[in-house]
Amino acid sequence: MNILVTGGAGFIGSNYVRYLLDETDDKVVNLDLLTYAGNLENLAGLEDHPRYRFVKGDIRDAGLVSALLAETRTEAIVHFAAESHVDRSLDAPGAFLDTNTRGTQVLLQCALQHQLGCFVMVSTDEVYGSLPAGEPGFTEETPLAPNSPYAASKAAADLMCRAYRRTFGLDVRITRCTNNYGPYQFPEKLIPLMIANALEDKPLPVYGDGLHVRDWLHVSDHCRAVDLVLRQGVAGEIYNIGGGNEWPNLAIVKRLLAVLGKPESLIRFVPDRPGHDRRYAIVAAKIRRELGWQPRQDFAAGLAHTVQWYCENRSWWETIRSGAYRDEYARLYGPGGRYADG
Ligand code: NAD
Ligand code: TYD
Predict the structure, then answer these.
(1) What is the mean pLDDT of residues 59-83?
(2) Does residue 223 lie within any of the structural domains?
(3) Is residue 102 packed enough to be buried (19+ CB in 10 Å), middle (13-18) or exposed (0-12)?
(4) Is residue 117 part of a domain?
(5) Tens-place pLDDT, residues 277-322
(6) Is the model's pLDDT at 325 over the cut of 80?
(7) Catalytic: 333?
(8) Cα separation of 177 and 225, whole Å?
(9) Cys-Cys with 110: which of 65, 102, 178, 231 at CB 3.0–4.6 Å?
């Protein structure tokens, strides 16, 4: 199969590109704009792979996408490209609407024009909003109730996917996964940020009381689930993906410190994120039942391996943290910033 992966230079996309090249015979074209979150180092070693090609470009550029689909005889799109960080969406909601919602619509329109066989929309559990304590988890029938501009832009994209399915008959499948962790995650997200700060003996900023709950899944399990949806999923269906692995943030942070042998005195409680969703958790019964998926990565081992990866690949995140991201970090977490240490 000829597959167009969008956002393949980001965290999950790069793990998926490697998965495709390792596990299948498919030809992979990776379309990525290389925003602050896109990094070709995530794909180091693949440059000359005979079944892989990188194209720097914007999913919002209909002319480029259309020409690419024709030239590469694309049969399926797996769509990861997005603005993905909630905190950034609080400061620049328009960029999220533009990339996540409008960008997805451009891709859908191009897919329709070229009569593509399959479009996999990689969405998120955050479209369901915050899960009350005691409830079992979001199912595919849970109403959409996004709370952050990021989540709203993804929910709007999901609804556009639904419209292209219902109105035009396009084969669109949506996946909604919980929080991912693993190698190549940009060090603005909880787990890599805490590992990097701890390694540099810097404060670990925990929002609010630190008791917000996330359901963590290793990126390799997410990639395998997306791939199953591509090959065995049903057109028009939504598949929730989750590890059944809920942890309060504070427990994660303490666990990382323990693995790294660093003191808990590095923890700093900072003001809460506005609109901060208290809990996410997924019921993944449908993908388990219908596609036979289940997570393979044990959490303790996966987290230890992830810590080890960040220890062994210091130059990867040090380079990122010495560039433009440093200024963004100082703006958010420095004096006068939203998460300034009390
Ligand atoms: P990421 O921020 O690491 O990567 C996003 C990639 O998209 C980057 O390489 C970036 O350069 C690219 N991109 C951004 N705008 C683009 C544009 N206009 N055109 C082309 N490329 C563009 O994100 P991630 O964490 O790998 O997430 C990937 C997808 O998975 C997103 O759609 C996200 O909503 C979804 N998701 C993420 C998680 C998670 O925990 N990280 C969980 C569930 C779903
Ligand atoms: P994040 O990795 O940004 O993912 P999301 O908000 O999409 O779930 O954050 C995970 C959780 O960690 C979330 O509850 C916010 C919290 N958090 C902190 O407490 N401190 C931080 O510095 C960051 C980045 C996140």
Answers:
(1) 98
(2) yes
(3) middle
(4) yes
(5) 999 999 999 999 999 999 999 999 999 999 999 999 999 999 999 8
(6) no
(7) no
(8) 9
(9) 65
